[in-house]
Amino acid sequence: MQLTHLMKTLKDYKKLFRNYWGYSEYDTPICWGCYQKPAVDIHHLTNKGMGGVSKNRLNRIDNLFPVCRSCHNIAHQHKDINEEWRMRLKEKIDNKEFEDNENGN
């Protein structure tokens, strides 16, 4: 996979997440795993794998979960937590539960 394509893919799912939840590119949400640290990563609840997937089909809002680095590591070590987080994310989407961010969005 070419680096430019990989970088575009990375930006696409982060942009999708930001746009859906109302964050600007300068906002950093709180981690939805521990609710204690800044979410520096966007975790795919259904893993893309090393080679990615065709047509970025896993880059969907119901598969993107903001996490801190510690929670991201836990998610990859303990796969069962992804199901818990998937239920938490579904509830947020169903309830249209948007968090206040620094810009008041």
Give an overview of the whole structure.
By secondary structure, the protein is mostly helical. The protein has one domain (3-94). The chain has helices spanning 3-21, 69-77, 81-94, and strands at residues 41-44, 64-67. It has a two-stranded antiparallel ribbon. It starts with a helix and ends in an 11-residue tail after the last helix. 15% of the residues are buried. Residues 1-9 and 100-105 have low confidence and may be disordered.
List the helices and strands and how they pair.
Layout: H1 3-21, E1 41-44, E2 64-67, H2 69-77, H3 81-94
Antiparallel strand pairs: 1-2
Distance between the termini: 36 Å
Give the total of domains: 1
Mean pLDDT: 80
Tell the overall outline: globular
Q: What's the gyration radius in Å?
A: 14 Å
Helix content: 40-55%
In short:
The chain is mainly α. It is 40% helix and 8% strand. Strands 1-2 form a two-stranded antiparallel ribbon.
Structural key phrases:
105 residues, mainly alpha, two-stranded antiparallel ribbon, disordered N terminus, disordered C terminus
